[in-house]
Each structure stands twice: as structure tokens, then as C-alpha cells.
Amino acid sequence: MDSFSVHLDNFTGPLDLLLHLIRKNEMEITDIPIAEITAQYLAVIDTMQTLNLDVAGEFLLMAATLLHIKSRMLLPQIAEDGAEEEDEEDPRAELVRRLLEYQKYKDAAVQLDELPQLNRNLYARSAPAPEVVEEGEGEFAAVGLYDLLQALQQLLVERPEPLAHEISAEQLSVADRISQILTALQGQQSLAFTDLFSAQISRHEVVVTFLAMLELVKLRLVHLLQSQRFGAIWLTPAVAEPTGLDSDVDEETLGYV
Amino acid sequence: MSDLKPLVEALLFGADGPLRGDRLAEVLEVEGVVVNEVLRALQTEYETQPRGFFLQEVAGGYQLRTRPEFADYLRRLGRTRPFKFSRPALETLAIVAYRQPVTRTEIEYLRGVDSGSVLKTLLDKHLVRILGKKDVPGKPAIYGTTREFLELFGLVDLAALPTLKEFSELATDADMDESAAVLPREVSGD
Amino acid sequence: MSDLKPLVEALLFGADGPLRGDRLAEVLEVEGVVVNEVLRALQTEYETQPRGFFLQEVAGGYQLRTRPEFADYLRRLGRTRPFKFSRPALETLAIVAYRQPVTRTEIEYLRGVDSGSVLKTLLDKHLVRILGKKDVPGKPAIYGTTREFLELFGLVDLAALPTLKEFSELATDADMDESAAVLPREVSGD
């Protein structure tokens, strides 16, 4: 399998990588062999040597999505009364929609790049005629809100206190998540990976959770197990009592700040 | 009418950006229809005569620009360096262009990756702007393209964007070559 | 020779200043005598045809310039040159927009410099207005933005001003991300 020669840097994101794998294997988009594509996808991720964490989070999120779809595909859809659920949507449906949608904009990007571009394919006059260069005041030059914000931002950098209350980007940190996972694991034999998420969890939290999980594995505080049959991920505590560590995980040293 | 042609040419030549038809009419103190006639006549002239430039309708106005076939030589002059778009930048720009007004969250859902830094660069380059806030919880900023975006890609308006292809299946690699088509052209003067 | 005319015209058109004959010869990879021939041919053409510009020999080079008889019309274009925001003007406007109602003292505290003249310009431009007097000793004037301000920035109302939060998220991402330079300027190869 030459998927090992694939470099993540060549892809703008997990959807791009998936599109590539699907095309390379000449798979049918409406009937993606999910087990096979998941295996190939994970193989690519595994062979990544240098991990740009910012990007990796999203590639890992897709890995989790694929594993989740895979497990749902294997699980027979049983309704309450025991009958086969017929209206159940194909677990792959959303992924297929996203891939097709992404492909549309990927194509649009190519088309955009093919348009004759100013200062690449054609040139306008750089300076107005001397007669025109004359200080005068007419309409306002187009200035965006961005310019306004940037001016304000610059002021904040120089004098942070007065307007600082406007910035309150309170988001879940990796260190917080590590503590939460360790707390959840306390006294447990194992914990399903999917149980770490609530239904309304944000994308940011998913990524943070993934990073937290990776960190816990690296710190040898948690083992990850994948059940043969359903492919779901289970977390098991590697040590009986993860004492002390849940309180003083230093974000700086983790490098996720 | 015919005696207006050199004058309109001079104005187009001397302007520092695309000139709107109504602005030309104002400066010349003539009716808009007269201006349009002259502009059409000039357009035809530049197409039929062997000229170095042509009249492009762009960003709601008209601008003289050098013919694309001379691009290699103009690059050698080394005057203005072209933007070299990365693939993430082009993807993000395409999404903003076609989906505007669009939030960062929507862009990131479509691309599957964080797009904050790409978005910031596009804002810095004045190709994307903040239009305002979306009236949903959290009031996220909504983004759209700028006049400079239209000027850069030589578009009259947003309706002139290439038609989006709807895909019902995956394109083959031949239809849409991953890298070759998307990578910016090499622009160095060698 | 004759097929070089449009190309030389394009180069003269696209150059940002007078072009020397030897530079043209270098770019075109032809002999200097050929270039001189083409330049003379163009010069004659512009003199005999009704054009908006002519070829002037200047500062040891050649430059296309609009004909002097059209100068009056070009000046009319110039008079409506857009008012460009200076950095102090933009800063002051940003403070008024986000902190209104605000006094001059507060603006000056934030900016760290006297802002009287900038404030006056913004008042003159009808982007800022006096809302009233603050009920403190000295009764200083309090400032706010105008309807024209909203129009200029394409805002429905003040609530549509994007928050700094989203902006700083973009900025922070870009700082962290080494690929912030998604749009590097092309390094020309010459």
C-alpha cells in the first residue's frame, strides 16, 4: 500500500486527505468501504513523524469520526421493539455530504486560481497620471471594519487595561480536559471514548479532548483499547490512583497554550 | 462622439483604479449613454488593433490592463509582485466568495480545519472583510469579499464568479488533479 | 519588428516610471537598435492617431503620459481622490465607535496623545458627532458616531459592530501558526 508515502503536509485538511484516498482507491462515494478507508486513513496518520498539533487535532477528529461510523455500520440497527429500523440514515451520509460539498469548493478554488489575475497575468498602471495626483478630499477611501478593529487591537496591545474586559475568550484548555478525564476515570475499569462527549459538544472541545487523550497516553496515565468487534475506543486507567496529577498539569509544558 | 475617444482613453489611462461609467459621465459632462458608446468603441478598437492593453470591465468600472499574453515580459520588469496563494488561502477565499455572508464556523465546517490564520491573512490583504455580525447566539462576525478581490480576479461583480460545479460523485483525479492544478503558477522570471 | 510594438506598448504602460531603452532591450532580448526602431514607430503612431497619451522621452528613458490638453479633465478626476484615513484618524474613530459616549479626555488617555485635531477632522467629515455634555465638572463634550459612519462601514446599526473577541481569536491563531504567511509575496527570480 503506497498510502505510506502520503504526506499530511500535502493536504489542506482531513477532508482533502479522505478525498485523495477515496479517489486513489477508485471507491464509490455513495458506498465507501468504511473499514478499508478507515484503515488507510489511520495508517497515514500513524506514519506522520512530525506532528503539527494544530493541524493534527483535526486529522484526529476525522479519525474518530471514521471509527465512529465504522462501529455504527457494524452495529445492527435495532429499534425499541426489536424490529429492524428502516428509516435509519446511513451512518456515512453526513460524511458523504461533506465530501461532496468540500469537493465543490476545492474545485471553485482551482477555478478562481485560473482566472487572469492582476499583477500575475495582467497589469494596470501603477501610478495615476501626474495631473491626478493632487491633494484633494472627496469620498472616503473604502475602509473595512477590519481596519477599524485592527486600529483598536493595536491600542489594546499598547495599553491593555482599559478595554481588556471585552476580551473574554474562555475556552476549555487541554489541561482542564486532562483533569476532567482523570476524574471521570477514577474508580472505573474503563470508559468509552464516546462517553467523554455530550451531544452538544463543540468542535473545539472534541479537538481538546483528543489532545488531552493523547497527552494522557504519552504520560502513561491511560491505556487506549479498541474492541475487536465494534472498533470503539475504550480508555482504561494505567495507574490505580492518578493522585496529584489532576490538579497541577502545567499547560505551558504541554505546549498547547 | 469620436472626439471623446482620446479623452476617455486619457482618463482611463490616468485613473488610479477602475473608473465607473457614471463618474466618467460626470467628469465629461455628458450623458451616460454617450460614455457607454465611447467605452464600447474603445473596447472594439483595442480588440481589433494590435495594442498592448485592453479595456476590462472590473469591480463595477472600467480599467485599462495589459494583455495577458505579455505577462511574462511584464514580470521581468519586476514591478509588482503577484500574490502567491497557498491552497488553504484559495479554498478559504473561494468559500467566502461563494457563500458570503459567511461565518468562520461555517468556513471551518466546510474545510474541516481551523481557518483563523488564513482568514486573518486574507483580511490583512484586503481580499476579505468583516461585513458585520450574524444575528444568532454569540453574534459571530460575518465575512465577505472586498472590491480589491474583484479587482484582483478581474470580476465585474460577484455574479461574474465562475459557476460552482455541483458534484454528485467524486471527480476522478483526471477531472481534478490534486496538486498540479491548485498549486500557484511559478512566476519567477527565469 | 511590427509585432514588437504592442509588447513594447504593454511594457511602457505597465512600468512604474520611465523605461530606459537598454532595459527594454534586455527584457525583450533584442538588440538596442530594434528597440529604438519600435519606440520611434510608437512615437509616430501616437502623434498621428487620436490617442489619449503620447510617448515622452524623459530622464534617460521613455514614458507614456496623458496629452497635456486633457489635463483639466484629469484634474477633475483628481479632485475626488478618496480621503484616506490616517492611522490617528482610524484609532480615534475606533475608540469613539467602541467606547461611545466618550469624552476627549478619555480618547486621549487611551491614545496617549492629543487628539483634538483628529477629532475635529472626524467631526468635519460627519463621522463623529457631539452627543451632549457630560455632567461632570467642566461639562466636557461627549462624542459618538453618526449615521454616515454606519453607512461608510456598511453597518445596519451599532450593535452590528464586530466584537474584539472574534478578532483577537483570529490574531492569536495567526501568531501561533507558523503558516501565517499563507500569502507570501512572490520572490521574483531576477
Walk me through the topology.
The complex is a heterotrimer, with 1 copy of chain A (257 residues) and 2 copies of chain B (190 residues).
Chain A: H1 14-24, H2 34-46, H3 53-74, H4 93-114, H5 145-158, H6 174-185, E1 191-192, H7 203-218, E2 222-226, E3 233-237, H8 251-254
Antiparallel strand pairs in A: 1-3, 2-3
Helix pairs in contact in A: 1-4, 2-3, 3-7, 6-7
Chain B: H1 4-14, H2 21-28, H3 32-48, E1 53-58, E2 61-66, H4 71-77, H5 87-99, E3 102-103, H6 104-111, H7 116-124, E4 128-133, E5 141-145, H8 147-153
Antiparallel strand pairs in B: 1-2, 3-5, 4-5
Helix pairs in contact in B: 1-3, 2-3, 5-7
Q: What fraction of residues of chain A sit in β-strands?
A: under 5%
Structural category of chain B is alpha+beta
End-to-end CA span of chain A: 37 Å
| Rounded radius of gyration of chain B (Å) | 20 Å
> In CATH terms, what is the fold-level topology of the largest domain in chain B?
Arc Repressor Mutant, subunit A
> What is the residue-mean pLDDT of chain A, rounded to a whole number?
71
H and E string of chain B: HHHEEHHEHHEEH
Helix percent band of chain A: 40-55%
The total of helices of chain B stands at 8
Helical content band of chain B: 40-55%
Strand order of the largest sheet of chain A: 1-3-2
As for the number of domains of chain B, it is 2
> What's the architecture of the largest domain in chain B in CATH terms?
Orthogonal Bundle
The secondary structure category of chain A is mainly alpha
Got a strand count of chain A? Answer: 3
Strand content of chain B: 5-15%
Low-confidence stretches of chain B: 177-190
Radius of gyration of chain A using CA atoms only? 25 Å
Which pair of chains forms the biggest interface, and how many residues does each contribute? A-B, 58 and 70 residues
